[in-house]
Amino acid sequence: MFQRLYDWLGWIPPGMLVPDKFPEARAFIRRMQVEAALLVAARTIVLYGATEKSLPYILGTGVPLEVAGHHLILTAAHVFDKVIPEGQAVYISPGSAGGKLILVDPLRTRRSVRPASGKRVDDHYDSCVVILPPDVVKQIGPDITFCQLGDLDPFDSQVMGSYYFMNGFPSQNLVINRCKSTVSCRSLLYGTFIYDGTRGPWPLPEGVKVDPDLHVDLDFHPRRAADDAGRRTRLPRPYGISGCGFWRLSQAGVDRKAWSIAHVKLIGIENRYDEVLYVLRGTRIKHFNTILVEKIDGALGAMTAIWGGKSRFSRTLDEDDASPGWNDQESPGK
Question: What b/e string do you get for 256-271 counting C-beta neighbours within 10 Å, with b at 16 or more?
Answer without folding.
Answer: eeebeeebbbbbbbbb
